[in-house]
Amino acid sequence: LVVTTLGTSSDEQKIDALIGETYKKFMLHYNFPPFSTGEVKFLRSPGRREIGHGALAERALAPVLPTEEEFPYTIRIVSEILESNGSSSMATVCGGSLSLMAAGVPVKAAVAGVAMGLIKEGDEIRVLSDILGDEDHLGDMDFKVAGTEQGVTAVQMDIKIAGVTRAIMQEALEQARSARLHILGVMNRTLARPHSELSMHAPRIITLHIKPDRIRDLIGPGGKVIRGITEETGAKIDVEDDGTVYVASADGDSMQRAIDKIRGVTAEAEVGKVYRGTVRKIVDFGAFVEIFPGTDGLVHISQLAHERVRKVSDVLKEGDVIDVKVLEVDRSGKIRLSRKETLKKPSPGDQEARP
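^ that's the sequence the OP posted. Answer follows.
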């Protein structure tokens, strides 16, 4: 039983090693409970077998995975061995490949694996394909080969004799290729390509890019802004140091609301563009209008209307929502706005009729 789970970048495995901290976006965990071989034992932490077989299967599947740019999900595969009388690690490779495709992961190709065995009596040699438990226990070699139709992605060998010749290796690899292609044919009859759509339960991830110097605005003091967006929309937000922002949610509406808020917080005013803003403060010489959350500009009294305005309060009051056009953004980031530029110019007849 092989299950694929998709998560966000915050679900990556953190590895604290001597060379420093690293993160893994792809993990494969292999569980071999005692009941799979008809035994009764305590269920303890992963042993040498679980770690080794999991590492082999993970190495076999890793080359066909999409890049982070193509598929920005953290992928975790868990293989539960329910019954074993052969190579459960190669079964994990086959099941893992099918599980990835069923989950909608755009893998480059299907991967299958097979365990080859060897029986040597004197000068007589027999290479066995897809060995059983007894053939593994009593035989002289356990040679696991995993790969796609195009080539090998992982190998692992246990050997009990002094060595094998080049001819034996060639025969074993050729038999393994034939067996692998046969298994891939059976797999392809069940699921030939990845599903085009992700599961309805998987989070959708959208990637945004903001300027690195706007990261502090998105996070806010003590994480106040980003935490507020997360609590309000229910979306999960991860921010990278280069300005890449991952927004994840299983609900499309929640994701869109989170995206709109992120863009509102990190947007920058463009000269010549018209924005809808809210009047936040009125002063003698004009009005300050907020065009993005936390970003406002000044509409000078001369830019309020085409006609002469004596008092700002005659035209605007705090809380009014108006359209403004960006005239200038100076080096210090101050924004000069105009309401007049968004209003229709009065015709000459209107000017003459005005008392």
